[in-house]
Amino acid sequence: xxxxxxxxxxxxxxxxxxxxxxxxxxxxxxxxxxxxxxxxxxxxxxxxxxxxxxxxxxxxxxxxxxxxxxxxxxxxxxxxxxxxxxxxxxxxxxxxxxxxxxxxxxxxxxxxxxxxxxxxxxxxxxxxxxxxxxxxxxxxxxxxxxxxxxxxxxxxxxxxxxxxxxxxxxxxxxxxxxxxxxxxxxxxxxxxxxxxxxxxxxxxxxxxxxxxxxxxxxxxxxxxxxxxxxxxxxxxxxxxxxxxxxxxxxxxxxxxxxxxxxxxxxxxxxxxxxxxxxxxxxxxxxxxxxxxxxxxxxxxxxxxxxxxxxxxxxxxxxxxxxxxxxxxxxxxxxxxxxxxxxx
Length: 343
Description:
Layout: H1 3-12, H2 31-41, E1 50-51, H3 54-60, E2 63-68, H4 78-87, H5 91-95, E3 98-101, H6 105-117, E4 121-126, H7 131-139, E5 143-147, H8 151-165, E6 168-169, H9 176-192, E7 198-202, H10 207-219, E8 224-230, H11 235-242, H12 264-273, E9 277-280, H13 282-296, H14 302-313, H15 315-318, E10 322-327
Helix pairs in contact: 1-8, 2-4, 2-9, 4-6, 4-9, 6-7, 9-10, 10-12, 13-14
């Protein structure tokens, strides 16, 4: 068995002893797990605002409600899942330390949640990750281990660290507790705006979209749940078409947070609860990102803007509808903004 195989095997072996939680292994999280996650993370996570803009509504031709996870702790929704997964652990397990791999936001989330729990964390980070995200991971006290910029290299490095340290793996998306934590995003949004027609969220590894789809369909069965994915990293759409996880593609997109691929658990949840994935070119995503900066007066990163870009790309599909959009993060390297003129 290779280190990467061991990593994938270990990522499925989660057991939550909390009363009322669903069984783990290869099982999927249930809506009860999302509700339990909401209670567990409440002392630590922010209840982020839902913003509206008349000018953006006019441009898009629909009624937009932006769930601002860019204002979450660590600047991204990832804190929800990491916090839930780490605080759900028995004391003895947590004390051995936390290991994960991440291009940035999940790593920072694990680092902060581990610090709040009082346990050590190590984060495997691929070369080329944005400097602002690396600074966040280190700033929250985690040990950073660099690796080559491929999923295989990330998984192998994390597996090696698990073998060396005996730590506990908190996978960025293939973890039932992480998925349940991410699902609290939709839980909050639909409690605030109960009559949404559509919910859109970015998709990379699928932890956010699958958790939000589970929560949204449980609260409002008739809602349409859609993912937004870069054209240069459209493996999730391909996986849903083919009914299997596509893991051998090289991602080419400015959306660094969406370069992961689905896992069997997230694929199964999306097959059951999601209604489709919309593909968006990077140029459209960057245009949407700039528009959000200009009109909402908030900082979002490319991975965060792609769901709004999907709405702008297909105006007829959303015309006149009430649309919830998850703005996933705001960690941008301000020295390398994508619309700045190059020297």
